[in-house]
Write a structure and sequence with these properties.
By secondary structure, the protein is mainly alpha-helical. 81% of the residues lie in helices and 0% in strands. It has nine helices and no strands. α5 runs antiparallel to α8. The protein is globular and about 55 Å long.
Length: 263
């Protein structure tokens, strides 16, 4: 694998990480984003992630002779378990997500600026730590196959947009500073870039078909866990009608078309 391929993989990882800035910019124009918009967006991200996991990542791992059916699925469920442990130790909440919070504000109940800024800080810390393994997974996927890496990068980028929004909206509301909200969101996305750089520095010398297959299977498990544990439940909590499932179907369709065009 040449230096050019490594640089391409890092470029994909970097662009995926920087997409949190897109969500941050959206946050500048809406202090409280539309629940319908967030529900569709999160459903869309879930659809993309689930489709990529089962249409690309797990099948690629299954094709590795050293792993076989059992090894690929062990890697997949290991990824799901690893995500569960990370989320258990370091939970984080999106706007509208209260599965870890002890208090759900009543309708019309105002949050003061300090509380909103603290919310933004906690979300930033949690999402930053969660983004780190995503960056490693995107880099490993791109090293396996550039088209697969691009698909992963798109999926992660779409997932990062509402994350950037979740960070910037409360910070902007609390401080009135576009710069501060943007930088906090950008810092979170930088964790994915750091994850890709770490994978390049540590994993690259040891990459083998078996290790690559394990990594892709685990990344698939992580993406499915994120979708089922976070994105879809939050989308349903924001809109109990049809926006979440419409987003899921649209995300899967867009990713299917994207993968077809990339082949």
């Amino acid at each position: 694998m040449g230096d050019a391929h490594v640089l391409e993989a890092l470029a994909i990882t970097t662009l995926a990480g920087l997409s949190t800035a897109v969500g941050s910019v959206i946050g500048f124009f809406s202090k409280r984003p539309s629940p319908l918009f967030l529900a569709f967006t999160m459903g869309f991200s879930a659809g993309v992630m689930i489709f990529v996991a089962f249409a690309e990542l797990l099948p690629t791992a299954l094709e590795v002779p050293e792993l076989g059916f059992a090894g690929a699925h062990i890697a997949f469920f290991t990824g799901m378990t690893a995500y569960f442990l990370i989320d258990l130790i370091i939970p984080h909440d999106y706007i509208g997500q209260h599965d870890h919070a002890g208090h759900r504000p009543a309708p019309g109940e105002a949050m003061n600026a300090r509380a909103m800024e603290r919310t933004g800080l906690l979300v930033t810390v949690g999402i930053t730590i969660h983004n780190f393994p995503e960056g490693m997974g995107t880099f490993v996927g791109a090293m396996q196959d550039l088209h697969l890496g691009m698909a992963l990068g798109i999926a992660i980028a779409l997932h990062n947009i509402p994350e950037g929004l979740a960070i910037s909206a409360p910070v902007y509301f609390a401080t009135g500073s576009r710069k501060k909200a943007f930088l906090w969101s950008l810092f979170s996305g930088g964790a994915e870039i750091a994850g890709g750089l770490l994978a390049a520095a540590v994993l690259l010398p040891f990459l083998s078909p078996a290790l690559m297959g394990c990594a892709l299977g685990a990344v698939g498990g992580i993406m499915v866990a994120i979708s089922l544990d976070e994105l879809i439940p939050v989308a349903k909590s924001l809109d109990s009608e049809h926006a979440p499932i419409t987003g899921v179907i649209t995300g899967m369709l867009v990713m299917a078309l994207s993968l077809q065009l990339l082949k």
